[in-house]
Amino acid sequence: MEDLLALLPGARRTLFAAYHVGGCQSCSYRDDETLAEVCARNKIPVEEAITVLLESHERDQALLIMPLKLAERLNKDEPFLLLDIRSREEHESVRLPGSKFLTQELQNSLFAQPPEETIVLYDHRGRDVLDRCAWFHGHGLKNSLALAGGIDGWAREVDPSVQRYRLELD
Asked: What share of residues in the chain are helix, strand, coil (percent, to 5)?
């Protein structure tokens, strides 16, 4: 599952939404399990699960904005809201120019704005941002995009002066 989740970042969300698999202790799976093992245990046809995962991945790709495309939009002074969904400490250490830290208060205020405003969300490496972007879409903010590769992708592809880092959790 670890390889699958790396290849299809939205797979965790998709498996839970489609089959209620992976969302809690009673239906969880281990990183070292295969999709076939998870499907067998949950009585899900593997071919069906693969189709559902690939269709979901295709939809997720439409939510992504590549770092170079975002840089073009920034250079053209196109109006949009750039939101950092990482921790406050990460945001205070290194952030994209013009971005705001997404607090609960700011998130709530977004629903008072016209839903056609473009919102670009980013995280560290682009692993969690698709889930948040999908949540925004599900709550009516249909012009929300997720920065592919996160701030790390930005540093690699657009601006090498942005400090790269690695999180180490205890």
From this structure: 50, 10, 40
Instruction: Return the closest-CA partner of residue 58 out of 20, 120, 126, 10.
Output: 10
Residues 45 and 88 grouped into a single domain: no
Identify the residue with better confidence: 169 or 161.
Answer: 161
Q: Which residue pairs, CB below 8 angstroms and at least 24 apart, start in 110-115?
A: 110/81, 110/136, 110/141, 111/139, 111/140, 111/141, 115/140, 115/141, 115/142, 115/143
The tally of domains found in the chain comes to 2
Judge if 25 and 82 occupy the same domain. Answer: no
Cα 152 from chain centroid (whole Å):
13
Q: 104 and 76, same structural domain?
A: yes
pLDDT in tens, 40-97: 999 999 999 999 999 999 999 999 999 999 999 999 988 899 999 999 999 999 999 9
Start-end of H helices in the chain: 2-7, 11-19, 35-41, 46-61, 67-75, 88-93, 104-109, 129-138, 150-157
